[in-house]
Amino acid sequence: MSDFQLFGQVLRDVPLFAPAGVSAPHAAQTLGTWITLIAGFGLMRAGEFRRHRFNRNRLMLAGAIEDNRTLSLVYWWSIVPVLALAMAEFWWFGKRPGLVLLAASFVLVTGAVGLRLLALKALGPWWTLGCVLLPGAPFVNKGPYRFFRHPEYLSRTLEGAGLCLIIGSLWAGLFWVLWSSALAGLLGSTEASQRQRFSIPVGNEG
C-alpha cells in the first residue's frame, strides 16, 4: 500500500462526528460558546456595514449607480436564518462534531475572514456591500482580485459553511453553500451588466 493510499485509509477511518451523543448540559454549553462566537462575527458585520454606508454615500454623491439593492440586502442578511437552522439541526440530531469537522471549520472561517480583509484592503474606498459602480473609477486588479472575480462573495460562502460545521450542522452548511452561490451568481451578473453598460471590461470585480 502506497503512502497516499495509507493516508486515504486514515481519513476514511476518522469519523466526522464524535462517538458519543450530546447530553443536554453539553449541548447548552456548546451552543453558548457558538452563540458567543456568532456575536463576535455580528460585531464584525456591524463594522463592515458602517464602512459600507460611509463608502456608498460618498460614491452615490459622486455619481455612482446601484442596481439590485434588494437582492444585495437579501444576500447579506440571509446568513441569519441559516445560522438559526444550523442551531436547530445541532439540537435536533444531537451530534458532536469530530476532529475533522472542527479542523475544516477552522480552516474555512479563518481563510474566509483573511480573504475578505484582503478584498477590503484592495478595494479601499470603493468597497461596498452592494452592486455600486462609479463610472470612471480605477479598475482594481490587485490583491485577491488577481485570482478571483468575486473574492468577497467567496469569503461569505466559506465563512457561513465554516460556522455551520463548528457545531456539526452539515445540512445547514450545504444549504448555505448552495443558496449563497446562487445569490452570488445573480449579483455577479448584475455587476457584469453594469460594466457592459458603461463599456468597462469585465474582469475581477467586487
Notes on the structure:
This protein is mainly α and 206 residues long. The chain has one domain (25-197): Four Helix Bundle (Hemerythrin (Met), subunit A). The protein contains 7 helices and 4 strands. The chain has a two-stranded antiparallel ribbon with strand order 1-3. It has a two-stranded antiparallel sheet with strand order 2-4. The longest helix is centred in the first third of the chain and has 38 residues, at 24-61.
Relevant terms:
single chain; 206 residues; mainly alpha; Four Helix Bundle (Hemerythrin (Met), subunit A); two-stranded antiparallel ribbon; 7 helices; 68% helix; disordered C terminus
Concise account of the structure shown:
The chain has about 210 residues and is mainly alpha-helical. The protein has helices spanning about 5-15, 25-60, 70-75, 80-95, 100-125, 150-165, 170-195; strands spanning about 15-20, 65, 95, 130-135.
Layout of secondary structure:
Blueprint: H1 3-13, E1 17-21, H2 24-61, E2 65-67, H3 69-77, H4 79-93, E3 95-97, H5 99-123, E4 131-133, H6 151-165, H7 170-197
Antiparallel strand pairs: 1-3, 2-4
Helix pairs in contact: 4-7, 5-6, 6-7
